[in-house]
Known about the structure:
This protein has 111 residues and is an all-alpha fold. The protein has helices spanning 5-9, 25-29, 31-50, 53-73, 81-110.
Amino acid sequence: MMNDIRTMRNINRNLFEGVPATANALEEYDSDADQLVQEAARHLVKARRDNDPQALNEASSATFLAAAELLNQAGGSVYVRFPIMVATRLVELEAALLVASVTNQSGERSA
Length: 111
């Protein structure tokens, strides 16, 4: 069933209003995809930090699995490249959060 057009037009209005900073929309939408994104991000951070090609392959595999999970959740009717692009961006963002968390923790210790 299609969503009402008025709902679709307003879908982004106040998207983050009242949402706590600790909220995880992906986890709420699809916890399996969320776990795969987090796994891929950990591998990506390791691959970049250690120049580890095996970790890069693991990150790539988990990213494609996350994309497949998102595509499955969407009902399989979405063009394939879009979930891959979204999953890849989510992995990059999660990796950046992991690095920022480590950086913040080391900064707090030295302060």
